[in-house]
Design goal:
The structure is a homodimer of 344-residue chains. Chain A has 344 residues and is α+β, with helices and mostly antiparallel strands. Helices cover 39% and strands 19% of the residues of chain A. Chain A is built from 15 helices and 11 strands. In chain A, the strands form 2 sheets. In chain A, strands 1, 2, 3, 7, 8, 9, 10 and 11 form an 8-stranded antiparallel sheet that branches. Chains A and B meet through strand 1, strand 2, strand 3, strand 4 and helix 6 of A and strand 1, strand 2, strand 4, helix 6 and strand 5 of B.
Chain lengths: 344, 344
């Protein structure tokens, strides 16, 4: 493995801060790109040309072949399942059972999933699993719905299902081509690595990921099949927000609370993407240090700035937009908040 | 919306990076102070004058009154218990039982602890607790040993035990005076807040926290009672490293692996402190974004730089000094590592 030279340390601004009592305790830096489907940058902070791994935030893009190829239609994949294909789910019972039912319907089983086993991230589900004497399985992996989608597409295309997580497999090569097309750049020589669920991650400039999401939000320049796929994917995400994440999760709360006005998706290491069909915009952000708490607060702030939430929605989402920091006794000891200097 | 100018950013350098495959994925900035007992700065990165909350990293300092007042002697507090008073422990059975035995010996019980209940951070202990049908208690709180120490000191001084976590209580006022004395500055007007376990946190410049640790490491300028207390606390920490943290924890692994040459203590939000008696130095570091993974790697790098580990020790600690990032299938997908530019 060759580690490539560092990108120049372009100034990445502090956009989120963690307050405790009378003082800011920790600070998070972020780059943010807000772009339209023509590639015009509506707003940006930090370095939007630096390549990042989009991680799970690009799952809505990775779901495109499932729908566009006709695989979803052939295998009667429901909108609820398309949402699961875009999910980093909590491993709650409803998520796991839906993935197992989907696999069963296409004639496959849990052993065909090539992601590793992962404990449910929702603690009550984890506790229930332990108490029932079970152990976490591959179906509990937060990416199991995405993997079910990959398997469905491979079956439809007559490709071997084994090895579908490998870079050289037709499933991953199709996704590489899809990313190149949606992001508008050649990626065969891009830096790459392996994701938490075993699939390749491909380094892509932040601004190009925002462009890809803008093209999902405003797909009129895409082929009819791809445009239809993008519309169905976004409709499925906002129609089944629980399937995209789960109880107490930011993705779910925001999509439920904003009633279909935005599709958002988190990725590991502080990545968040959004598609805003009403505005024809895509958003991509990366927290320099990889912190999820900051990615959520930054995404919330951007959605506020973009003017898509009314006062009632903003009020209902207050605890997500500016989350409390609490101690073990439940006392509120601080907040995670956007910086308040008028620039973000 | 337009592209805005950058907020002003104090220069805090990137010292730790997270690599995945062929690219650096996330970056952590840190300030570091290495200081001797006279306050001479041996080395520094970033902003060492900025106040930080020392959080649990200052527990070795907060244990001083327990020993210095004579409370530990009066109540036959063992070195193993002094180590627990300095601990952010995993909530493993051995930790919890030791705290309960200590409380019982001084005539108190779990209800006298004013920290909130916290689930064990060591997952096998958490699973065992669930399977046994129990729920996390205040004794499982990672700070329960520190609280037992506070209660012991209050009993010895004839102070009420109730309310010992409040800023105005004699226990906390004694600790405020202790911090002022060890850090060498007046703190009555310092910014403050509430810690995870309910006690006050007091903002202190990073360099002054390093000074306080240097005075613990090289206590010859302190009063004999305080010097003896400092020596006993450091001896207890390195003598009972499991009690300071627990299974698989960085504090424990480093203190075990370096055979008494350094006492180190982690704090929440990316803080780490160290006392090096052989060198007469104290170390304080704060990760700007609060990440524990970066605080550990930065502390490991500093200990390497200071030349206190031989080749065999460094080799045995390799997986702690440069930890692997693994995916759910167990594949190594990257590393957390110090930057490799020769400056850190």
């Amino acid at each position: 493995m060759t580690v490539l030279s560092q990108p120049k340390a372009t100034e990445v601004p502090i956009l989120v801060e963690v307050v405790r009592g009378q003082m800011v305790e920790s600070r998070h830096r972020a780059s943010v790109a807000i772009v339209d489907a023509h590639g015009k940058v509506a707003a940006a902070w930090g370095d939007i040309e630096r390549p990042i791994y989009g991680r799970s935030a690009i799952k809505p893009l990775l779901a495109i072949p499932l729908v566009e190829t006709g695989a979803a239609e052939q295998f009667q994949v429901s909108d609820a399942e398309v949402a699961l294909a875009c999910a980093s789910h909590n491993g709650e019972v409803a998520h796991v059972e839906a993935v197992l039912a989907w696999l069963s319907r296409i004639g496959l089983s849990i052993g065909d999933l090539e992601c590793g086993p992962q404990a449910p991230s929702y603690d009550p589900s984890y506790r229930a699993l332990i108490l029932s004497g079970q152990v976490p399985t591959r179906a509990h992996n937060n990416c199991s719905g995405k993997h079910a989608g990959f398997l469905t597409t491979a079956l439809f295309a007559g490709e071997p299902t084994a090895g579908y997580i490998q870079y050289e497999h037709p499933v991953q090569q199709r996704l590489l081509g899809l990313l190149e097309s949606m992001c508008g750049l050649e990626l065969s020589r891009a830096a790459r690595g392996i994701d938490g669920c075993g699939i390749p991650v491909i380094a892509t400039p932040l601004g190009n990921l925002a462009l890809a999401m803008a093209r999902m939000a405003d797909p009129h320049h895409l082929s009819p099949d791809r445009a239809n796929a993008c519309e169905r994917i976004l409709r499925s995400m906002v129609g089944y927000p629980f399937n995209v994440a789960g109880t107490d999760r930011f993705c779910t709360m925001i999509m439920e609370g904003l009633h279909g006005k935005v599709a958002i998706k988190v990725g590991a290491e502080g990545v968040y993407l959004a598609a805003l069909p009403q505005l024809g915009l895509g958003v991509a952000l990366k927290i320099e240090d990889g912190a999820a708490r900051a990615a959520e607060v930054a995404m919330g702030r951007i959605l506020q700035r973009l003017g898509i939430m009314d006062a009632a929605e903003e009020s209902a989402l207050a605890s997500a937009l500016r989350p409390a920091v609490r101690n073990w006794a439940g006392t509120r000891t601080g907040d995670v908040r956007p910086i308040e200097d008028g620039q973000f």
